[in-house]
Every structure is written in structure tokens, then in C-alpha cells.
Amino acid sequence: MDLPRIRGKEFIRNVPAIAGGLFAVFLASLALASESPQPWPARPLMNGEWQYASQEQVASLIQKFRNHVSHEQRSLIEGITRLRALPLSCHQDVILFEGEARHSSGQVGVVSFLLHTKGITLLDGKADRIYALNVWNPAKIGTEEQAQTYLKLFTGSLTSEEGNFRILQTSEEV
Questions:
Q1: What gap in Å lies between CA 45 and CA 167, rounded to an integer?
Q2: 40 and 52 in contact (C-beta within 8 Å)?
Q3: pLDDT higher for 84 or 71?
Q4: Which one, of 113, 40, 27, lies nearest residue 81 by Cα?
Q5: What DSSP designation does 123 have?
Q6: Contacts 24+ apart (CB under 8 A), 35-41
Q7: Residue 91 Cα distances to 74, 96, 111, angstroms
Q8: Nearest CA to 46 among 152, 141, 164, 172?
Q9: What confidence tier does 151 reach under pLDDT thresholds 50, 70, 90?
Q10: 108-121 pLDDT per residue, tens
Q11: CA pair distance 55, 151, nearest whole angstrom
């Protein structure tokens, strides 16, 4: 299965200078990324044209991410073994990242976070993370695609005792 690719020039045009450095390694070696990644322990937060990082990219990006998270959040970031990225049309200069993380107990999970000009926002199931983003980077919902992307991001980032919420558009997403 061929994975869709975001062309480097299109992608970098939408990335601010501050976050651009974080993606230099990621974009430079997209061709090295696996064409058919192994299945993840959970579906992505939302459907889209995800880009998968090679192991070299993961190591380099994790080093850079450490500078953008609190000391308490570092253990989540440092446990990441794989990464996938999805640029968001509903916010300027924001990219959704998901990392497959292994806990010291051996349990595997997925950590979701947003990379933006102010650093990283971990999505922990609470709406206040998206509300805070909207304060300084208001959601763009001028098109149907932007509105759908925002709705999927918002609902997907909320978690209850039974898991997170999903908006399904096709029967294949069930």
C-alpha cells in the first residue's frame, strides 16, 4: 500500500520558522520512511494523510521535543518508539503528532500532541488544551474541510472513562 506523501515544499510553507527546525530532519529523509509501517496499537486520532517517521527521524525529533515539554512530561516523550505527523488545516502552523510509547511495564500506548510556534501541547483528554490553543491561535473554519478537521480534532482529543470520541464519516471507520 502506497502511503500518500506531503511534498516537502508544500509542507514547509505551512510551518513557522520556530517549528521549522523541528521538521528539518523529518522532511529531509521522508524517502527513508517505511512504505508500509507495522500496525499501531490504536487508530489515529483522526483520519488523514499521516506521514511516518523513520527510526532515525524519531530519535532526532525526540531530542528536539525534550526542549519543548515540562520535566513531568518528558517521560511520555522519551518513551516514544514511533512517530506519525498530520498537518492541520484548522489551525495555522499546527501539526498533530502521535507517538507510539512503551511504558517501563511493557505496555504500549499512543501519545498525541500538537506541535506549534509556542512549543508542544500534550492532548490529555481535556478540552482546556484545545481552548487554550484557540485563545492565541483561533481555529480556521472557513471551509467545510477546515470545519470537519477542527471537529474531529476537538472531539478526538476528549476522553471519557470509555475512551476518546470519534466522528465517523464512512462505514469503514467503524
A1: 10
A2: no
A3: 84
A4: 40
A5: -
A6: 35/1, 35/2, 35/3, 36/1, 36/3, 37/3, 37/82, 37/84, 40/82, 40/84, 40/98, 40/100, 40/110, 41/100, 41/108, 41/109, 41/110
A7: 25, 10, 20
A8: 152
A9: very high
A10: 888 899 999 998 89
A11: 31
Distance CA 123, CA 165 (A): 13
* Digit-coded pLDDT (tens) for 23-34: 544 444 443 444
Q: What is the pTM of this model?
A: 0.74
22 burial level (CB within 10 Å; 0-12, 13-18, 19+) = buried
Distance (Å, whole) CA 82 – CA 68: 18
Cβ neighbours, 10 Å, residue 96:
25
Whether residue 139 contacts residue 93, with contact meaning beta carbons closer than 8 Å, is answered with: no
